[in-house]
């Protein structure tokens, strides 16, 4: 389904007067709004190919229909999102859930939609049909060199695929670990994993990065070989300057202080990027900002402060990606909500009065510091986001337009209601 420019123009024309009223009020309240606009427009959030269909749980899956059946259709879906918000300018593929075949045509289709390819993700947490060795007892950590070799080869193949598509990063998440005490020698598992990662790292092109994700538990419930940010940091610092830690917001033990983790990884130059989602209990993969929007804001507060201190380019120097799963929502609507929540938290962090905050911190003025942060967090910056979309040629209210145009119904008509499994 293609979205016509006129649909966006008509929609914007109908909402323009109300939008301008809100923006004018915001301008009178928040003097920095115009400085923040270009930064907001630049921030693009990558959409994971696996979040375009219904995820389900291990208890069941309820397909909403019209799900993409091929990489081309996944690109079209992300193209739709990008046309609506001009903030989802890239797609992240997961191999072999995605099997890119005709690279040139996939690349040109993506370009037609104004999209590029973000990090490519490898998968050594499932056995694939016809695969020689099983990953039941791990992949890069495995006690058997032949299994490790197979997993290393897979990662190198993913890099090759990514090179064909113009990606610049390999994202590695390992489910490796153990289910019971005694199953694993932790030190050997670490060393095997490190050696395997070193072989993968050696195959990275000069301008590529390797992002190593961590996760506290699941599917292994006793130990995980890259379980937390400290362990990921240990690997990436041993690997070399092209290796970084990737923070997935759902991968921590309950109540972990993620903003502090972010601050320190950034300080050490080892923060690679994010898998955004939200979490109530564990790796819930819920819509970003749906459960703990204040935590999201506090993370962005550290990001803005830390990136500015290191003179980093906000939009380009980290990987900004969503990792979500949808059980009851329309996946595309959910992704629109997530992108909006991420950019809102970013905008709020951009208007924090940094000088005043630094002064409050220097004076141990705890109350003032809290007031400063919460003043930014409680400012409704939605008109600012809408303005940045308007200027970029996107819709003032993307979700509303998605519904007005009956996008899902058109997709169902085009693709049918057959469920297409998209992996985890
Ligand atoms: C694992 O839970 C994870 O967060 C990794 O990023 C995987 O690649 C993705 O989810 C699979 O859905
Ligand atoms: Mn993830
Ligand atoms: Mn996850």
TrEMBL record:
<keyword id="KW-0413">Isomerase</keyword>
<dbReference type="GO" id="GO:0016853">
    <property type="term" value="F:isomerase activity"/>
</dbReference>
<dbReference type="InterPro" id="IPR050337">
    <property type="entry name" value="L-rhamnose_isomerase"/>
</dbReference>
<dbReference type="Pfam" id="PF01261">
    <property type="entry name" value="AP_endonuc_2"/>
</dbReference>
<dbReference type="InterPro" id="IPR013022">
    <property type="entry name" value="Xyl_isomerase-like_TIM-brl"/>
</dbReference>
<dbReference type="InterPro" id="IPR036237">
    <property type="entry name" value="Xyl_isomerase-like_sf"/>
</dbReference>
<keyword id="KW-0464">Manganese</keyword>
<feature type="domain" description="Xylose isomerase-like TIM barrel">
    <location>
        <begin position="103"/>
        <end position="286"/>
    </location>
</feature>
<protein>
    <submittedName>
        <fullName>Sugar isomerase</fullName>
    </submittedName>
</protein>
<dbReference type="GO" id="GO:0046872">
    <property type="term" value="F:metal ion binding"/>
</dbReference>
<keyword id="KW-0479">Metal-binding</keyword>
